[in-house]
Design a protein that fits this description.
heterodimer; A: alpha/beta; 2 domains; 13% strand; globular; B: mainly alpha; extended
């Protein structure tokens, strides 16, 4: 690692944070209306949320078997943001959403998120300590425990959002056998390919992190999507520029 | 209502750890290391709390209900208590304790891996039924093409230079695709991290 790399990294993070902050201000949000690319999976999920409220069935958010102190934790945190929004959207449903996780940190956070939206939507009386469960501490035990949790809870739709590996295949198959709809996304390339093959709808790459913005959580989620687009464009330009310079033997 | 103190502590901790990563001054590195050690300890305690919740909050409750799964919950509780007792008596690093745990856990997880292999092969065959769109078709064809290429069925290509070049080019395609996906994941992770750092996303109360 050269001496400049950490400085470049710090500059990127600071610039990203400033742009997210600026673009999430009310004025900026009003001036630039959000235009979302259609994600069929998210569309179906929104429909599934509506159906779950009407049917009185449950939604399940699975946060994967990753730990809060792993570099893979942002996908689980995205799952938590989705859980928060789904909890708000289903506040009139008979059965509140439940979550399963594979680490203590995520289990405690999901319990906290559930109690936060219960307080915000005045639905504390429907809350239950088993709504946020630790399904298993290894990847396979997590998959097995989660299938049991889906089976026992009257779930009609699942959002699998977090750190998943090959064990996700068991989860997808289990969810399908129970006739439940599944929208899945993972930070791992292995997890994504398994979801692509086995789940009803899969989110690929950056789409995983876009789910809260699509569910309309907060202005900062939309702002961070915009900043991601700006940075992606910059990276593409840098890559093309680098390739041209390399072909010309300049670098 | 979220406590401002919790937000301040969370944001400040995040910024200190991040600064310690980017700027390698001894004071920052030492603070960062100490805070990460605390985080690891806290994660361990959180794991213990969650396992206790699983046993006493979920399985003990299930024992009280007249469900057919009471028996499995009873087994879970008994095995948990036996493992906990052995761990406390022998210590987690004791070879006998390690042997007992791995002799149970490894075969079970290996069996699940075997089930997974069969499940994935069977479900992949049904993929086109589930995903009737161009993405599904492309994915399915890619799987078939790369299975054939990597199976060694085209080993004779070593004698045909043009075919060898072509296959070598084909091998680059998954790497390019993976890089594209990883780039999206990196940007998404950065966005999530930044939202937590500026206190906009708060998956915690105070």
């Amino acid at each position: 690692m050269s001496q400049y790399e950490p400085l470049i990294g710090a500059a990127v993070v600071i610039l990203f944070a400033i742009l997210v902050f600026l673009l999430s201000r009310k004025k900026a949000v009003k001036q630039t209306g959000a235009v979302f690319r259609t994600l069929p999976g998210v569309k179906k999920m929104v429909r599934a949320i509506g159906l779950a409220v009407e049917d009185g069935t449950r939604l399940h958010v699975s946060l994967g078997s990753g730990s809060l102190i792993d570099p893979s934790c942002p996908s689980g945190l995205t799952g938590l943001a989705a859980l928060d929004r789904i909890g708000q959207l289903t506040s009139t449903s008979d059965l509140p959403p439940m979550s399963t996780s594979g680490s203590g940190g995520f289990q405690i956070l999901s319990q906290d998120v559930i109690s936060q939206y219960a307080a915000a939507t005045n639905t504390r009386d429907r809350m239950d300590a088993t709504l946020a469960q630790l399904a298993g501490v290894t990847s396979f035990s997590y998959a097995a425990g989660t299938i049991e949790a889906i089976r026992d809870s009257g779930t009609s739709a699942n959002v699998l959002m977090g750190d998943f590996g090959a064990e996700a295949g068991l989860l997808c198959e289990g969810a399908e056998r129970l006739n439940t709809y599944t929208l899945a996304g993972s930070n791992s390339v292995i997890g994504q390919s398994v979801f692509m093959a086995l789940s009803k709808d899969a989110l690929i790459g950056e789409e995983v992190y876009a789910l809260p913005a699509y569910l309309g959580v907060k202005a900062t989620h939309q702002a961070s999507l915009r900043v991601q687009d700006i940075f992606r464009l910059l990276i593409i330009l840098l890559m093309i520029g680098g390739a041209i310079l390399k072909v010309m033997n300049i670098i | 209502m979220k406590s401002p103190l919790a937000v301040i502590v969370a944001v400040a901790s995040g910024l200190i750890v991040l600064a310690g990563y980017f700027f390698s001054t001894p004071a920052l590195i030492s603070t960062r290391t100490t805070m990460l050690d605390w985080a690891v300890t806290l994660a361990g305690v959180a794991g213990l709390v969650s396992i206790t919740h699983l046993i006493f909050g979920v399985h003990i409750r299930r024992l009280r209900e007249s469900s057919s799964k009471r028996f499995f919950s009873l087994i879970v509780i008994l095995v948990f208590l036996a493992t906990l007792g052995a761990g406390l008596y022998l210590g987690p690093a004791h070879p006998d304790y390690q042997k007992v745990v791995t002799a149970v856990q490894v075969p079970i997880e290996t069996s699940l891996m075997a089930v997974l292999a069969v499940t994935m092969a069977y479900s992949s065959l049904r993929m086109l039924k589930r995903q009737r769109n161009w993405m599904g078709v492309v994915f399915f064809l890619s799987v078939i093409v790369f299975l054939v290429i990597n199976s060694g069925a085209l080993a004779f290509s070593a004698e045909i230079p043009i075919l060898q070049e072509l296959l070598s080019g084909f091998h680059q395609i998954p790497a390019a695709g993976t890089r594209g996906i990883l780039l999206g994941i990196a940007l998404g992770s950065l966005a999530t991290g930044v939202r937590i750092l500026i206190g906009s996303d708060r998956p915690y109360s105070g």
